[in-house]
Amino acid sequence: MLFFKKKKEAIVLNAPCNGKIVQLDKLSDIAFNLLGVGCAVNVDKFKGKIDIYSPIDGELVTVFPTKHAYGIKTNNGVEVLIHIGIDTVNLNGAGFDSPCKQGTKIKQGQLLATVDLDLLKSKKVQSDVILVITDETHKEAKIKFLADANNVEVNKPLFEI
């Protein structure tokens, strides 16, 4: 009798916005690299307001009051942190708008937030949109990039684990 090991299904995260890929270890705040695996999407070439979309289906288990960070947990236990910018918590919500509420279900491609990049730039705050897989099961998973590093397209596959 042969036993076949069931192949794990790949988990795909879509790009939350347009931009270019930045490795977590290249960010000015190394804490994100210590949280898990993922990447950031650099949006420096854009001006004005941009929309940030959910990279995956799940429940919004965390919505920071300052609307700069979101935690999503999928049905199969994957936990994803979407953090907009570095040191953006210090803006106390200025430049961020979001229709999302903690505890609600969210779909991949659904609007998470709108960000005023001009305000972030005027405050000299980095605006990279950071995605990190934070749950213990996948924290050290290998990621495979699915997007062109210099031309990430919103709501298109960004990476898989």
Automatic annotation (TrEMBL):
Gene3D superfamilies: Glucose Permease (Domain IIA). One of its GO terms (cellular component) is cytoplasm. One of its GO terms (molecular function) is kinase activity. The keyword Kinase applies. It is found in: Cytoplasm. InterPro entries: Dup_hybrid_motif, PTS_EIIA_1_perm, PTS_EIIA_component. Pfam families: PTS_EIIA_1. GO terms for biological process: phosphoenolpyruvate-dependent sugar phosphotransferase system. Its main location: cytoplasm. Residues 29-135 form the PTS EIIA type-1 domain. It comes from the Bacteria. Signal peptide: none annotated. Keywords: Kinase, Phosphotransferase system, Sugar transport, Transferase, Transport. NCBIfam families: PTBA (TIGR00830). PANTHER family: PTS SYSTEM GLUCOSE-SPECIFIC EIIA COMPONENT (PTHR45008). This is Phosphotransferase system component EIIA.
